[in-house]
């Protein structure tokens, strides 16, 4: 029995879910680290600075959009899944690049964008033969 599996033997839905989970965890941890940065806008809001109108709603929407591909990769059909992953990936890259500040954030954003680009590449290369028969 060969226990050395390459990533080509992994269900594409598993690959996508794992990459999205990794990106979301990085995003959350970048925000947690931002709380330690005295110049962080997140910390300023936590200290009582006014939040722009709709700021919390925008943050909630962003997290819903970023975590939804984890579940959607399991329930959407192959064709829809491909386009949803690519569109959400492109949106997330734009959001990540315009947000945050500081060297620590540049490190987080570099890894996040690299993972999203890898997700988009996997999705783009995904062939119908690789797709399990779902919805």
Description:
By secondary structure, the chain is an all-alpha fold. The protein has helices spanning 12-34, 41-46, 55-75, 78-98, 103-125. The chain has a domain at 12-37 and 59-125. The protein has five helices and no strands. α1 (12-34) runs antiparallel to α3 (55-75) and α4 (78-98) runs antiparallel to α5. The two termini are 33 Å apart. Residues 1-5 have low confidence and may be disordered.
Secondary structure elements and their pairing?
Blueprint: H1 12-34, H2 41-46, H3 55-75, H4 78-98, H5 103-125
Helix pairs in contact: 1-3, 1-5, 3-4, 4-5
Taking the alpha carbons of the first and last residues, their distance comes to 33 Å
Main pleated-sheet profile: none
List the helices and strands in order.
Answer: HHHHH
The tally of strands reads: 0
Percent of residues in β-strands: under 5%
User: What level of helicity do the residues show?
Assistant: 55-70%
Query: What is the overall shape?
Result: elongated
Based on CA atoms alone, the radius of gyration comes out at 17 Å
Structure classification: mainly alpha
Which segments are poorly predicted (pLDDT under 50) over 5 or more consecutive residues?
Answer: 1-5
Q: What is the overall pLDDT average?
A: 85
What would the keywords be for this entry?
135 residues, mainly alpha, disordered N terminus, elongated
Describe the structure in brief.
The protein is an all-alpha fold and 135 residues long.
């Amino acid at each position: 029995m060969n226990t050395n599996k390459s990533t080509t033997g992994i269900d594409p839905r598993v690959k996508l879910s794992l990459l999205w989970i990794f990106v979301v965890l990085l995003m959350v941890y970048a925000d947690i680290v931002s709380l330690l940065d005295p110049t962080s806008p997140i910390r300023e809001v936590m200290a009582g600075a006014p939040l722009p109108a709709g700021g919390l709603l925008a943050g909630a929407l962003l997290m819903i959009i970023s975590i939804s591909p984890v579940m959607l990769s399991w329930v959407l059909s192959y064709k829809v899944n491909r386009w949803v992953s690519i569109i959400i990936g492109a949106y997330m890259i734009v959001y990540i690049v315009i947000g945050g500040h500081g060297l620590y954030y540049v490190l987080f954003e570099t890894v996040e964008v690299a993972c999203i680009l890898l997700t988009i590449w996997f999705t783009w290369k995904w062939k119908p033969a690789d797709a399990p028969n779902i919805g």
